[in-house]
Protein 1
Amino acid sequence: MNWDVFLAPYEQAVEEIKIKLRGVRKQYNMSSTKHTPIEFVTGRVKPISSILDKAKRKNIPIEELESRMQDLAGVRIMCQFVEDIDAVIKLLRMRKDFEIIEERDYISDKKRSGYRAYHLVIKYPVQTIDGGKKILVEIQIKTLAMNFWATIEHSLLYKYSGEIPGNIIDRLQRAAEAAFRLDEEMSKIREEVLEAQAIFRRKEEEQRNH
Ligand code: 0O2
């Protein structure tokens, strides 16, 4: 298996999607009335060691990775408020440059670990020197609080090779509840925050036009 060649279209897809979504954010930021539902975007191609671990765990033969491992290419969209997640989903559903083939709502139905996020799997067309190719990309949409929790839990999973001790699992559950409450509280003051951000944007615009 030549991993560089195999993963090249995934690298390309991640870079292209990041640029497109950052463009969406820029368009919102140029408007003095609209709040951007996208706080920031990150992306990665799964490291080879993680691909091999997951393939083993899920019994996926190497030759079936392309069709069965949906997150070889992964893009994360971070939002300030839970309400923004719905706006981003709507925005993605409207796009014509890829096809959504699956949606997993771990917000209405959180995972047992406490993980919350909205996942979409898309079929994204990339152009290669051998012609066009459609590849799977997983888009995760999260609030900043959801992302904070998932990042910490992910490091602990790595540290303990998936077997996190019971007392830490309990703490993570409590932290997940706290992150949920933080999102709820922030939603309640959302209008105030949006107004403050709009004032700030208008001031910046005035300065730019001076
Ligand atoms: P990495 O290192 O982020 O690439 P499964 O692994 O069976 O749970 P599946 O069927 O591949 O998941 O799809 P799913 O549930 O959409 O999960 C894919 C990715 O979502 C994971 O990739 C994680 O990035 C994230 N994720 C899902 N569940 C959890 C969780 O409980 N905690 C954290 N921190 N992240 C989660 P990988 O390959 O597991 O890991």
Protein 2
Amino acid sequence: MEGELFLLKDSKGRAFLVRLRPGGVFHHHKGSVPHEAILRAGPGGVVETHLGEPLSVHRPTLEEYVLHMRRSATPTYPKDASAMVALLDLAPGMRVLEAGTGSGGLTLFLARAVGKEGLVESYEKRPHHLKQAEENIRAFWQVENVRFHAQGLEEATLAPESFHGVALDLMEPWKVLPKAAEALMPDRFLVAYLPNITQVLETVRAAEGLPLRLERVLEVGWREWEIRLPVAHPRFQQVGHTAFLVAFRRWKAS
Ligand code: SAM
């Protein structure tokens, strides 16, 4: 039981991430439930709080986990993380370079995409962010395919053309671009997650003079609908702007 992860959903659809421990109790504003009862109900089951509120019991999906896990830095939004996996064209067995690790949200998407034969080398310059990321990743993902590095990517020693992809989610990607470009294999992708268009422009400018060709800049739209028949319309509250995704492709060094 110790450490098992569950997601509970109440009748309003609110979700709560719970890590079970012997003797533990989950508290909801409509009553409490012992962790033993959650374990007995199991994934797909239902428990009731002592005040009669039904809570459905689930194994958290990766999206649910990233949205509800503890955070030191804001995680890459799951819709964008999954698009980054697609833009990076990741497959099992590949090696990916990542910076910064932050809370480990994007790392989990990358680690799942490359699988147990693959590897994610993740750099984070703030030690307390890295500690939180390691905890988050180990709690969800039991495969040992992530190597953590407590340093800025610009200080890393990397073999040239050794990664199938580079994923960047940091404030000033232009500072690490030369190092990242050199470590990327020819014809493979570097994708940066950038909340501001000014960051996009600065990154594109920094790529000039490097063996990187700008492939595309995009935003990922994700419009949720409210369906409670006969009600059916787009949700009034949506996730607004998260970030721009900027994808570069590596030229062969001449
Ligand atoms: N993608 C992460 C996630 O899903 O949890 C969130 C990344 S967070 C927005 C940005 C992180 O980059 C911060 O933790 C910051 O300390 C780190 N960072 C900034 N510059 C860096 C650099 N040059 N090298 C490594 N990490 C860096």
